[in-house]
Design brief:
This protein has one helix and seven strands. It is mostly beta strands and 101 residues long. Strands 3-7-6 form a three-stranded antiparallel β-sheet, with no helix packed on it. A two-stranded antiparallel sheet has the order 1-2. Strand 6 and strand 7 form a beta hairpin. The longest helix has 15 residues, at 2-16. It starts with a helix and ends in an 8-residue tail after the last strand.
């Protein structure tokens, strides 16, 4: 049930912060929870760009249901810059000097 709730949460966040310049073709989230209540989240996003773009943004909340979420060990397979702004971490994935088509 918890995995379903998180999947629904991530889907809603993706739709709310969506952009018309690309389509998310595949969005897969795997969540493992250990006995110390530490969540390991593996997220794979396949994007089809409809026009030249420099990448995508991913916004990660640092609070959920009034509880603080400590985020660490962020890794991506593309050039990424991160900015911690209050209750959210903003990830800019892509090269700011190169367009992707």
């Amino acid at each position: 049930m918890l995995k379903w709730s998180f999947s629904l949460f991530f889907l809603v966040v993706s739709l709310v912060f969506g952009d018309s310049g690309y389509i998310i073709d595949n969005y897969k989230v795997d969540i493992d929870i250990n006995n110390k209540n530490i969540y390991s989240v593996d997220e794979n996003i396949e994007v089809n760009f409809l026009e030249p773009r420099r990448g995508i943004y991913r916004i990660l909340p640092e609070q959920f249901n009034g509880r603080e979420i400590k985020i660490s060990n962020l890794k991506t397979n593309v050039q990424t810059s991160a900015k911690d702004e209050g209750n959210y971490i903003y990830l800019r994935m892509g090269d700011p000097k190169r367009y992707i088509t």
